[in-house]
């Protein structure tokens, strides 16, 4: 595997500027286009699965993070408190859960609404030490694919199973190949909330969800509020990190005094399931760049079609085809300068999945000749058919370049 930092520079996906700050990379247009497609895909996958999306601010009042337990248990992993005045202090949030707990209790809830799945692709901050920062794999400003599923205790098993299914679907579309499942448990020497009964109950629920799957147990890797299932990946250097996670939390619902009206008219406390299907956009792309060597599946390739007129006489027809591609929702560019061979080579080096060549013969017949980035050449086909084929591959989130 190639280091994503080098490829990120070569393919102009992101830019690390000392003036922006260590761990604060900037997404360049090509990287942003790919990320945008991935975000849209995940949002739609979640929407289909009954998630509701919200926006919440990346900072909040100190009292919110005192209530959530973050300042008591997690302060070492947070930026120092921002102080406007003695009674006006703010925290750059290290997690989205406190805001989503506020979404839950913005009004009364009934058992009929559960599981209530609140999702957000949201910003959060961690003061990683500058020595460990590099590229996208460890950053200080994190864009997390996050959700909090509030459910009744008896719904937890089915909810976790459904989340595991969604994770598998997302991994298959993106080309993520997990290295394994991990059950992350409490360990000695760390601070954890809650009592043994709560932890045992949560652990047993997760063990059940994992039954039949190969997994390892890792002491000391739990969140401070509960155990979790982590899905691990390996980077190019063989280092392991977590890409997807499912965490059970009995603690925050109590801290925020969350409740719902149950079917007998009484008040019950929901369980909070924290989950991320694909982790942060930063770590996800660090991984995707390496595992695909920059050659993303067509649906999130920064440029999907490079249109290449053989000579100036084909320029108008090429431009018309490019416009048709863009109108069909594809990202297409026209490159007219240089020899055709050189342009096909550059398109492949830039990992553009499809080069559409238009020579005199193709234009006369209303056709284009597709050249794939892996060197394959497709027989010339009618321009609308080529466009329909590519748009179909993109819409299907296929990993293949041909049907
Ligand atoms: Zn959370």
From TrEMBL:
Q: Name one Pfam family in it.
A: HGTP_anticodon
List UniProt keywords, sorted A-Z.
Aminoacyl-tRNA synthetase, ATP-binding, Cytoplasm, Ligase, Metal-binding, Nucleotide-binding, Protein biosynthesis, Zinc
Enumerate the GO terms in the molecular function aspect.
threonine-tRNA ligase activity
- EC number(s) stated in the UniProt entry for this protein: 6.1.1.3
Reactions accelerated catalytically: tRNA(Thr) + L-threonine + ATP = L-threonyl-tRNA(Thr) + AMP + diphosphate + H(+)
Query: Which ranges carry the Aminoacyl-transfer RNA synthetases class-II family profile domain?
Result: 29-297
Q: Does the keyword Transcription apply?
A: no
UniProt family annotation: Belongs to the class-II aminoacyl-tRNA synthetase family.
UniProt protein name = Threonine--tRNA ligase
């Amino acid at each position: 595997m190639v280091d994503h930092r080098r490829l990120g520079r070569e393919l102009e996906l992101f830019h690390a500027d000392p003036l922006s700050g260590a761990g604060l990379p900037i997404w360049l247009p090509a990287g942003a286009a790919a990320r945008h497609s991935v975000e849209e895909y995940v949002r739609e996958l979640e929407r289909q699965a009954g998630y509701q999306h919200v926006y919440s601010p990346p900072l909040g009042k100190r009292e919110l993070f005192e209530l959530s337990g973050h300042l008591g248990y997690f302060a070492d992993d947070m930026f120092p408190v921002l102080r406007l005045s003695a009674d006006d202090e703010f925290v750059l949030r290290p997690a989205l859960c406190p805001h989503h707990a506020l979404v839950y209790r913005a009004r009364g809830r009934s058992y009929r609404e559960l599981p209530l799945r609140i999702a957000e692709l949201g910003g959060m901050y961690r003061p990683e030490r500058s020595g460990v920062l590099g590229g996208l794999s460890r950053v200080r400003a994190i864009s997390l694919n996050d959700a909090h599923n509030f459910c009744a205790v008896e719904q937890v098993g089915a909810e976790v199973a459904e989340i595991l299914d969604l994770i598998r679907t997302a991994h298959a579309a993106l080309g993520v190949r997990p290295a394994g499942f991990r059950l992350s448990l409490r360990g000695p020497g760390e601070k954890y909330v809650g009592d043994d009964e709560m932890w045992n109950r949560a652990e047993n629920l997760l063990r059940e969800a994992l039954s039949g799957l190969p997994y390892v147990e890792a002491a000391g890797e739990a969140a401070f509020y509960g155990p979790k299932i982590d899905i691990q990946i390996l980077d190019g250097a063989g280092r392991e990190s977590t890409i997807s996670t499912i965490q059970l939390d009995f603690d925050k619902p109590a801290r925020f005094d969350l409740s719902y009206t149950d079917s007998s008219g009484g008040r019950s406390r929901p369980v909070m399931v924290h989950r991320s299907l694909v982790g942060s956009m930063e770590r996800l792309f660090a991984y995707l760049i390496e595992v695909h060597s920059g050659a993303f599946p067509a649906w999130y390739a920064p440029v999907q079609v490079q249109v290449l007129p053989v000579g100036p006489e084909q320029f108008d027809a090429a431009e018309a085809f490019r416009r048709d591609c863009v109108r069909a929702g594809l990202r297409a560019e026209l490159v007219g300068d240089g020899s055709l061979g050189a342009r096909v080579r550059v398109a492949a080096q830039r990992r553009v999945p499809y080069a559409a060549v238009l020579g005199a013969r193709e234009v006369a017949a209303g056709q284009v000749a597709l050249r794939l980035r892996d060197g394959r050449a497709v027989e010339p086909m009618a321009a609308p058919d080529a466009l329909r084929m590519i748009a179909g591959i993109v819409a299907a989130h296929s990993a293949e370049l041909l049907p």
